[in-house]
Design goal:
This protein is of the alpha+beta class. Helices cover 22% and strands 24% of the residues.
Length: 198
């Protein structure tokens, strides 16, 4: 079963690699974006002048969290500032003119603001995107390539304006010191690392 699964994944990866040709990602521009709270994020909620209401919470898988006075507040899909205003509205029923600050810790983020690595990375996973993030940063986060990887046949899948684009990556060259093989990433990018066929 596992061998069949690897074979299917390998064939899909080869199809994507074939689609990329000799197409390398364009030089990146720094994309401005606001971090969006997602399930798994840890929140520090500070209510000025009301320390008994200040608390910490983790956003549940359903995108909501509970504070000391209000249950099931939606957090996923909001910036920390939007979330603070929402908590102020909710607390306004109990406290006169509450002033709330939200600090996000333990970032996970929403899927559209993550970068995913699949295939033959040492630790395939999703990583929260951060401004100025590059492929090299991503490879460090996933522990590099595993022994079966064909890093120079890797591809970057990017969705731009609803259109899927596939670009070649030279991960082996990059990890061996060819910094010209580094490229900026964007939120939502997917890096696919195929297995080497011996």
């Amino acid at each position: 079963m596992k061998v069949a699964f690897r074979l299917v994944v390998g064939m899909c990866l080869l199809a994507l690699v074939g689609c990329a040709g000799n197409n390398y990602p364009p030089p990146g521009t720094v994309q401005e974006y606001d971090y969006i709270v997602g399930p798994g994020d840890n929140l520090e909620i500070f209510v000025w002048g009301n320390p008994e209401l200040s608390t910490s919470a983790t956003v549940r898988p359903d995108g909501k969290f509970t504070t000391r006075l209000v249950e099931d507040l939606r957090a996923s899909g909001m910036t920390s500032t939007e979330l603070a205003r929402e908590i102020e509205r909710a607390y306004g029923r109990y406290v006169k003119n509450p002033v709330v600050s939200v600090i996000v810790k333990g970032f996970v983020g929403v899927p559209t603001q993550q970068v995913r690595v699949v295939g033959e990375a040492a630790q395939p996973t999703n990583v929260p995107f951060r401004k100025h993030m590059t492929v090299l940063d991503l490879m460090i986060a996933v522990g590099g390539l595993n022994e079966f990887a064909n890093g120079n046949k890797s591809v970057l899948v990017r969705y731009t304006d609803g259109e899927q684009k596939v670009y070649n990556l030279r991960l082996e060259d990059l990890l061996e010191g060819d910094i010209a093989a580094n490229t900026p990433l964007m939120p939502g990018d997917i890096v696919i690392i195929p297995e080497a066929w011996f």
